[in-house]
Amino acid sequence: MAAMTSAVAMPVSATAFSPRRAASSAARVVRRGVIASAVPRDGHVHKATAAPVAPLAPKSAEAIADNISYQTSKTGVMPLSFETPDMYRATAESVREQLFENWNATYKHFHEQNPKQAYYISMEYLQGRALTNAIGNLGLTGEYSDALRTLGYNLEDCASVERNAGLGNGGLGRLAACFLDSIATLDLPAWGYGLRYKYGLFKQSINATTGEQEESADDWLEVGNPWEMKRETAHKISFYGSVVDGVWTPGQTINAVAYDSPIPGYKTKNCISLRLWDAEVAPKDFNLAAFNDGDYATSMAETNLAQTLCAVLYPGDGTREGKCLRLSQQYMLCSASVQDILARFKERGNADWAELPAKVAIQMNDTHPTLAAPELMRLLMDYEGMDWDKAWAITSKVVAYTNHTVMPEALEKWPLELLEELLPRHVEIIKRIDEEFIASVKKAYPTMAAAELDAKINTMRILENYMDPVEAAAAAAAAAAAA
């Protein structure tokens, strides 16, 4: 797992926003049950579920070979030029066809039964190669091996062609991928959310002359990804701008576009989704007038932002620009995912927002997605018309947070002035969450000495070293009087 070291040395008057504490305020890491299995393994009708979908018919090696041969005809590659990478693609398409039967049935089942569903939000997923995993989970490894052998190919050779998805780099991403595999295998209703990085982390090579490691971009999507499907789903993601009386007027807006990949369970019909977001600019948002006037920088501002947002996993944060990019990535992931979750809640016929905690559980994987909590508050208040108390009661029951380490260098902190510039509406929400948390602590410990209590609170609050302007003025006046 890559350690996120965004904390910067600041004078006492400066302020840092701590995502870990924000998450802890929004969710006390209470385990919440996920109601109703997605697709029952047996033939019985379980409570809160409908009759299971029909199982896939067993596939013979001969039938699979015929299907792969059919897939080769759709590759557009001339027969004499057909090589192992082309056979990998044809085999992947054959496997995908079988996965899609279960994938579509699972989605239909979720929609009809409307169970409580978990949504796992993570900045990274270290999945490994999808071909052998999917074939194994379908229970067809032997059949595909035999089918490819009759066609003159080897399953291991075809599988080795697959590029590792550049979506993760360590324990955090591997854990996230394992969670999705386990959830699918246990027949639980859930989705994963992440970002569709173009270059992932980096590709390693050794310089033949110096013997030193060299790093270059890993374009894992160079030849496409047969496992993903681009959807028409898109959500607007906004940055910068200003807030007047709680109304945010953004300065920049891009679209988060959905790419879905199937996550099959092991020997089960349950096949859940990993939805990755990519950044794009809608044609209507392109500033053609500025472009024709020669102001190319202005006309391409949103396009450049979109191309940058999902370029690399964990961009360097040694500069202010790097910090801004990382924070923008995290907000894009949170905003698109939460908008999508609420849209699905409505799509399934839910009319009462008080029922959201009974239908939705959002799990934030480490500190990166913790902006999901204030984003959910923003959407419930600014778009659904809720007051603060109702929105907070719902949010605190819906979101949960996993902390992976207590190492200070792995726990993110962001300069408040950067957050105020990038997400001004969220800062208003975060400040109030912080204020109400402090008030609740002071109410719970009325007999503790004020100096001791304030010292403890400053180590737990979301905004470190922050003092409300009114409090700051009062403190300054008291200090002046004492002098």
Automatic annotation (TrEMBL):
One of its GO terms (biological process) is glycogen catabolic process. The keyword Repeat does not apply. The keyword ATP-binding does not apply. Gene3D superfamilies: Glycogen Phosphorylase B. It comes from the Eukaryota. It catalyses: [(1->4)-alpha-D-glucosyl](n) + phosphate = [(1->4)-alpha-D-glucosyl](n-1) + alpha-D-glucose 1-phosphate. One of its GO terms (molecular function) is pyridoxal phosphate binding. It is an enzyme of class 2 (transferase). Its cofactor is pyridoxal 5'-phosphate. Keywords: Carbohydrate metabolism, Glycosyltransferase, Pyridoxal phosphate, Transferase. Its EC number is 2.4.1.1. Belongs to the glycogen phosphorylase family. Allosteric enzyme that catalyzes the rate-limiting step in glycogen catabolism, the phosphorolytic cleavage of glycogen to produce glucose-1-phosphate, and plays a central role in maintaining cellular and organismal glucose homeostasis. This is Alpha-1,4 glucan phosphorylase.
